[in-house]
Amino acid sequence: EPEVTQTPSHQVTQMGQEVILRCVPISNHLYFYWYRQILGQKVEFLVSFYNNEISEKSEIFDDQFSVERPDGSNFTLKIRSTKLEDSAMYFCATKGGRGVETQYFGPGTRLLVL
Amino acid sequence: KQEVTQIPAALSVPEGENLVLNCSFTDSAIYNLQWFRQDPGKGLTSLLLIQSSQREQTSGRLNASLDKSSGRSTLYIAASQPGDSATYLCAVLFGNEKLTFGTGTRLTIIP
């Protein structure tokens, strides 16, 4: 069964450093999302991406965050200058089309900012 | 504000019992509702998706129901097994692209 993959599975970084989290969507999926889950808290929406542009973003997704699909396959989340509070599990999700279809989640990247 | 609530936060039941997990949401104008399973430190596995026009969905031992008018969904697990131990998350699509998640119910099946 096709699945969403994410790399790396774990990343440790120093505060202020830039990190890039990568996601390979299910082939032919058109809608892409990033969510995050701080330890012990709810899964929170960050951003949705369709047709090479952001379609919606949350209050969390400030100027330190950016997303792109640089090569038509990978979907990346960049955090320009990490803060301690960015430590979380980051999930990529993808969906085939508009409407009522399931969002398929990747296994997540656990980011630890020291 | 659109919110999703899951009660209880934790539940322990003996193996073999049937059980029900609850999810409530504040806005009846939902697009769909999804139930996920999350194992410790792992990703989210989609279990069932119920469209707003549906009343229930079934997959194996799992049955999810939806009552939009009361803002509730339940996930029924029949004949529980130790392998069912996990956190179960309810997530609602409120007519836009983002899923709004509940805090989850941590389920422990006691052998």
Explain what you see.
The complex is a heterodimer of chains A (114) and B (111). By secondary structure, chain A is mostly beta strands. In chain A, 0% of the residues lie in helices and 50% in strands. Chain A is globular and about 40 Å long. In chain A, 32% of the residues are buried. Chain B contains no helices and eleven strands. In chain B, the strands form two sheets. In chain B, strands 2, 4, 5, 9, 10 and 11 form a six-stranded mixed sheet that branches. In chain B, strands 1-3-8-7-6 form a five-stranded antiparallel sheet, with no helix packed on it. Chain B starts with a strand and ends with a strand. The model of chain B has no long low-confidence stretch (mean pLDDT 93).
Largest interface: A-B, 25 and 24 residues
Mean pLDDT of chain B: 93
Helix fraction of chain B by DSSP (H/I, runs of at least 4): under 10%
Radius of gyration of chain A: 13 Å
Instruction: Tell me, briefly, the overall form of chain B.
Output: globular
- Calculate the mean pLDDT score of chain A and round it: 92
Task: Tell me the major beta sheet of chain B.
Answer: 6 strands, mixed
**Total number of beta strands of chain A:** 11
Strand content of chain A: over 45%
Uncertain parts of chain B: none
Strand content of chain B: over 45%
